[in-house]
Automatic annotation (TrEMBL):
It comes from the Bacteria. This is HIT domain-containing protein. The lineage of its organism: Bacteria, Bacillati, Actinomycetota, Actinomycetes, Micrococcales. Substrate binds at residues 42, 104-107, 114. Keywords: Nucleotide-binding. The keyword Nucleotide-binding applies. The active site is at residue 112. It comes from Orlajensenia flava. InterPro entries: AP-4-A_phosphorylase (IPR052908), FHIT (IPR039383), HIT-like (IPR011146), HIT-like_sf (IPR036265).
Amino acid sequence: MVYIEAGPGPHEESCPFCAAPKMDDEKALIVARGEFAYALLNLFPYNSGHLLVCPYRHVALYDDATAEEVAEMASLTQTAMRVIREISGCDGFNIGMNQGRVAGAGVADHLHQHVVPRWATDANFFPIIAETKAIPRLLGETRQAIADAWPRAADAGSLSAPDAP
């Protein structure tokens, strides 16, 4: 809501997804960097481990992204799911993109995909009654756990997709 209520602003100077890659990974909450895209924790998470996967390039819509950006975003999303499942034991995921402000995008002019871990017990009365969401872990701790578990090029097979039958 902070992004939405702030309204539109100038593009790259105030775009958090353009600024993040220029910062230290810990400060920017980045867990992994690729050639065309990167993954970072959402500063305003719905659940603990809520990641965003973004292209480096300032592009607003999915159909404006290059094939390389789309492919790397997909790969980062798959790896994020495997890592989060491994370290948190989540039961499922919400994955999606809100395209444009009218569709609910808080940062409408820089493409980003949400990867939200879900647990069978993650819904309770807090968000409805108190308009509050309890997050059981600090962002810095979550970033470190995910970054530490993220496979490096040398050990990428450890969290690879299951073998095809």
